[in-house]
Amino acid sequence: MSRPDTMRALQKSRPVEGLWMVEAPIPEIGPDDVLIRVHKTGICGTDIHIWNWDDWAAATVPVPMITGHEFAGEIVERGANVTDLRIGQRCSGEGHLIGTESRQSRAGKFHLDPGTRGIGVNEQGAFAEYLRLPAFNVVPLPDDIPDAIGAILDPLGNAVHTALSFDLLGEDVLITGAGPIGIMAAAVARHAGARNVVITDINPDRLALARHVVPSLRAVNVAEEDLRAVIAELRLKEGFDVGLEMSGSQMALDQMVEALVMGGKIALLGIPPGKSPVDWSRIVFKAITIKGVYGREMFETWYKMIAMLQNGLDVSRVITHEFAVEDFEKGFAAMKSGQSGKVVLNWI
Ligand SMILES: NC(=O)c1ccc[n+]([C@@H]2O[C@H](COP(=O)([O-])OP(=O)(O)OC[C@H]3O[C@@H](n4cnc5c(N)ncnc54)[C@H](O)[C@@H]3O)[C@@H](O)[C@H]2O)c1
Ligand SMILES: [Zn+2]
User: Fold this and answer.
1) Which mutation among 113, 205, 253, 269 tests ligand 1's pocket best, with the greatest number of atoms within 8 A of CB?
2) Residue 3: what pLDDT?
3) Pocket residue to mutate for ligand 1, from 60, 176, 247, 318, most atoms within 8 A of Cβ
4) Nearest alpha carbon to residue 52 among 16, 27, 82, 24
5) Which of 61, 71, 75, 85 could form a disulfide with 126 if both were Cys (CB 3.0 to 4.6 A apart)?
6) Is the pLDDT of residue 240 over 90?
7) CA of 263 to the centre of ligand 1 (A)
8) pTM for the whole thing?
């Protein structure tokens, strides 16, 4: 084989701010793994936490660690037990590695395995020319899904998992937080047949991007506009039916609870920075159902999102920047600016 022994990789080499391009050994694969030649990767908020080396990162991520978990690539090597995937198969994959012994795993609910480990966080990640992945985690990419979309299926999957938590057909949906995931959730809610889709943020650039990606939504700057006025404008009799919380902001959750109908439903994806006060009695008296959402369902979310992409769901405009990996610093700067959508790095 003419493959070299080492590869370029973006690594957290030291426990201080930054990431470094290093030469690292190409991973050895086990009998149940594949080796993937990475084509494109997406930068996630998690990667920014690791770059910044905040308290969460310092407590969670061992160094050295190759970061990154959003990727598309192609299978170049298979372990001895892998027979159902072919060399050259384009793929993305689930970055949550799970065990098979827990109650939930044995019930087939792999995404609820308590021992979940993340590539690029707990295990060597995808910001590299080559990635080792269990064959179980591979998701083949159909020919009509390009690598750039393949590289953002992980966060699209967060959006799909959250948005499909509750029936959206004919419902009025409120999404708080117009980050890349909130915007993609808005596109999914539209695709899934919601009547009104309203998205909130306090960053005008993000709201402009939301309008650009999903022209039919109502984007609301809650620093300037009152959601009650929007409810009146849309002639919602009693408020929104379903809320998708995608900001991690306490203020956004409070607004959502107020803006929901009695018996409304909330799917919570956003991660608050720490403990935050919640007006539980308001939630109880409004008889609201709350569901926490983590990751993607394995592999139902992947199935649904690929099906929707093949049936007209278009999230391509959420990718606002693409850089060669040599320019990774520009990519991270774009992410940190708050003016970007998804930022994609090219490895080939
Ligand atoms: N549960 C999971 O498995 C999982 C996975 C990925 C991301 N997340 C979380 O989901 C959230 C969305 O991810 P993202 O990458 O789109 O994040 P992001 O940080 O890019 O977007 C969050 C948006 O919320 C906005 N915001 C802040 N305060 C607000 C308020 N009061 N009202 C409305 N919007 C407000 C911000 O301006 C920003 O545009 C984040 O909290 C992230 O940590 C959770
Ligand atoms: Zn991610």
Assistant:
1) 269
2) 78
3) 247
4) 16
5) 71
6) yes
7) 25
8) 0.97
- Cα distances from 89 to residues 36, 38, 98, 141, 143, in angstroms, run 9, 12, 23, 8, 10
**CATH no. for 6-152+315-346:** 3.90.180.10
> What is the C-alpha to C-alpha distance for residues 124 and 331, in angstroms, rounded to an integer?
21
Give the residue-averaged pLDDT of 41-57. 97
User: What is the Cα–Cα distance from 108 to 299, expressed in whole angstroms?
Assistant: 10
Q: Is the CB of 331 under 6 A from ligand 1?
A: no
What is the tens place of the pLDDT at every residue in 156-188? 999 999 999 999 999 999 999 999 999 999 999
The distance between the two most distant Cα atoms of the chain, rounded to a whole number of Å, is 67
Question: Residues 50, 329, 272, 244: is their CA dihedral positive or negative?
Answer: negative
Question: Which residue ranges make up each domain of the chain?
Answer: 6-152+315-346, 159-292
* Cβ neighbours for 210, distance < 8 A, ≥ 6 positions apart: 178, 182, 183, 186, 199, 201, 217, 219
Q: Of 3.90.640.10, 3.30.70.100, 3.40.50.720, 3.30.460.10, which CATH number belongs to 159-292?
A: 3.40.50.720
- To the nearest 10 degrees (0 to 180), the angle between helices 328-336 and 45-52 is 100
- CA–CA distance, 73 with 8 (Å, rounded to integer): 15
What long-range pairs does 202-209 form, CB within 8 A, spacing at least 24? Answer: 203/178, 203/338, 205/338, 205/339, 206/178, 206/179, 206/338, 207/178, 209/178, 209/183, 209/318, 209/320, 209/341
| Cβ of 162 less than 6 Å from ligand 1 | no
Q: Which two tokens stand for residue 216?
A: 């039919």
Rounded to an integer, what distance in angstroms lies between the CA atom of residue 280 and that of residue 137? 38
Judge contact between 160 and 176, C-beta under 8 A: no
User: Which has the closest alpha carbon to 347: 65, 29, 134, 73?
Assistant: 73
Report which ligand 1 atom has the smallest distance to the Cα of 182.
16
| Cβ atoms 296, 161 nearer than 8 A | yes
